[in-house]
Design brief:
Residues 21-63 are annotated as: Disordered. Residues 28-42 have a biased composition (Low complexity). With 163 residues, the chain is of the alpha+beta class. The chain has two domains: 13-81; 87-162, no CATH class. 45% of the residues lie in helices and 23% in strands. It has three helices and six strands; from the N terminus they run H-H-E-E-E-E-E-E-H. It has helices spanning 13-23, 31-82, 152-162; strands spanning 87-93, 96-103, 111-113, 119-123, 128-132, 142-150. Strands 1-2-3-4-5-6 form a six-stranded antiparallel barrel. Helix 1 (13-23) packs across helix 2. The chain is rod-shaped. The model is unreliable at 41-45 (pLDDT under 50).
Length: 163
């Protein structure tokens, strides 16, 4: 004596009809057709939901990458703005005129001229340049008269032409 298995459905009759109308089937179906048609329809809904969820997850790393690159760009821009920029100095002493690239120091440290190992102190109010060896007092530094002071682009062009 075998027991008969009762057929059940995951969707109610109204939900089944609604899904079938969306699929383009407009005629009502019988109970046997409904159980066979409801299972694939029920399975297709979670798949499409999973697809949209996976698309959102795929978009999320793209958004985080854009934020990462934006943060790096802001960081580099702020470092460029804050960092001291080289200058092209033209100075003279005893009739000898020289051009050199001057790199200002960070946070109060003395700057340096790239073609010498001496520390450089620029006194813009006096239009003077003092070049000192390490360990010497400021009174023993060589004094040069500043003739011209140019910015970053002039320093880059001078450096490029000399190399």
């Amino acid at each position: 004596m075998a027991k008969q298995i009762k057929k059940t459905s995951l969707l109610s009759e109204a939900e089944r009809q609604k899904l079938l109308k969306k699929a383009g089937n407009k005629k009502p179906i019988t109970q046997a057709q409904a159980t066979t048609a409801a299972i694939p329809a029920a399975r297709s809904v979670p798949r499409s939901a999973n697809r949209s969820a996976s698309r959102e997850q795929a978009d999320n790393p793209t958004g985080s990458k854009a934020k990462l690159w934006g943060g790096i760009a802001v960081l580099l821009l702020s470092v460029f703005i804050i960092a001291p920029k080289p200058q092209l100095l033209e100075y003279q002493s005893a009739g000898l005129i020289t051009k050199s690239i001057y790199m200002p120091g960070w946070f109060g440290k003395p700057g340096s001229i790239l073609d010498t190992n001496q520390r450089a102190i620029v006194a813009e109010d006096e239009y003077s340049l003092y070049l000192c060896f390490e360990g010497q007092s400021n009174e023993q530094c060589a004094k040069y008269q500043l003739r011209q002071q140019q910015g970053l682009i002039a320093a880059a062009l001078f450096w490029y032409s000399s190399h």
